[in-house]
Specification:
This protein has 12 helices and 19 strands. It is an alpha/beta fold and about 450 residues long. The strands form 6 sheets. It has a 5-stranded mixed beta sheet, sandwiched between helices. Strands 1-13-8-11 form a 4-stranded mixed beta sheet. It is about 30% helix and about 25% strand. The protein has helices at about 60-70, 85-100, 115-125, 145-160, 205-215, 225-230, 250-265, 310-325, 330-335, 345-360, 380-395, 410, and strands spanning about 1-5, 30-35, 55, 60, 75-80, 110, 135-140, 165-170, 175, 185, 195, 200, 235-240, 275-280, 290-295, 295-300, 360-370, 395-400, 415-425. The chain is elongated. The structure holds cytidine-5'-triphosphate and magnesium ion (MG).
Length: about 450
Amino acid sequence: MTAPLSPPTPPRPDLPSWTRRSGTAPGSIATVAVIVVAAGSGTRLRNTEPKAFVLLSGRSLLDHALDSIFGMHETVQIVVVAPGDRLADAHAIAAQASARNAQPTAAMTVVAGGRTRQDSVDAGMNALDLSIEVVLVHDAARALTPASLCDAVVDAVRSTGHGIIPGLPVVDTIKRIAPSGAVLGTVDRSDLSAVQTPQGFPRTLLSEARAWAVRNGRFEAFTDDAALVADAGHPVSVIPGHRLAFKITTPEDLERAELILQAATPHSPVMPRIGMGLDVHAYADDDNTELWLAGLFWPGETGLSGHSDGDVAAHAICDALLGAAGLGDIGSIFGTADPRFSKAHGEVFLTETVRLVRAAGYLVGNVSVQIIGNRPRFSARRGEAETLLGGILSAPINIAATTTDALGFTGRGEGVAATATALLYPVPSTVPSQAPDLNWEA
Ligand code: CTP
Ligand code: MG
């Protein structure tokens, strides 16, 4: 049951108190909450990360979505519904967004979501403060939604007292088709609307509708909140949506969002990132330990001691890559307690590190390594090592080696050290088949 709505009118004095705006002064009690559902896995996006944690211009979709909420006119309670095993990450993103937007007074709650979107909305509803009178339910996947759309939904809920959803006219011609693909007819699109989020409701109305759906065994039937509310017999109206409130569902949607952001900041260069790493291992005090250095086995040379194979060059590269990507260091990712990495060769660490760096949205630009030690004499096998490690990195690598002129622990022949510097660059978007519409107005 949806109907077009005329522009929001000012609150009427005969309507209840929640129809009047509140919470605009810092520290005042919020009467509006936004439940940001971010607990989905993003199957159709086909990323290694759950969708809300996938990066868009170097920041997670959840982070972008929270920026919109922080941009709203009034201070609202924000309830982030995150995957149960990623609550700490969601907390960190929420805290960063809060600090960046200088909104430390906005109440923020992070709760674990459920199996379906409706279960996740339920988890969000259970976290609402007592003071909340208007609830917006918003998909984190609609990461570029303008704050003005959220404000418009709140205003319309207040002025009408019923459910409000943003929607855009359907521009494509819609056909009904048979399973065979045969066209059965053309749907009249004049009364169709492609609806978006945030969807807003008086809190009591949404709670009652949800309870009604549970009592009648219809809870699982609805993919959006408005359908559930309308099914319970309550009016829901459509206000004009915004083209930037599109849902990021597929990799193509993510590319579109990336291009929109790039176009909006045409003069900001895409910044590469650099990182450096250092590693040292002592020579083993037995003749049985093999020497592995820069991914190669060095027969007849004294080995280096360590939990892994002691390949200082490979380890320094891993630290440089992880540092550039902001992912910590080799010790925090490949703990020495993990038996999988006991005596593992440098290639194993490097392959996994490159995978993590790519998942974080970066490609390797180049790597430069400096090995410091008396032995082995490296230069003869330099090309071999660069081919091997460059293949894993899919990037150019230069490996230099030096002694320290008999000075220090390397000069005394006690061990080998290596430093590495890595340059990463953000994964570029591919050119979409359709040029993006760069009009930021609805
Ligand atoms: N969502 C949720 N809990 C679920 C399922 C979905 O909080 N159990 C959220 C998603 O995080 C997303 C919004 O609901 O912000 C819309 O869902 P959708 O776009 O379908 O996201 P996913 O379910 O993550 O993606 P997919 O269906 O491709 O797996
Ligand atoms: Mg889904």
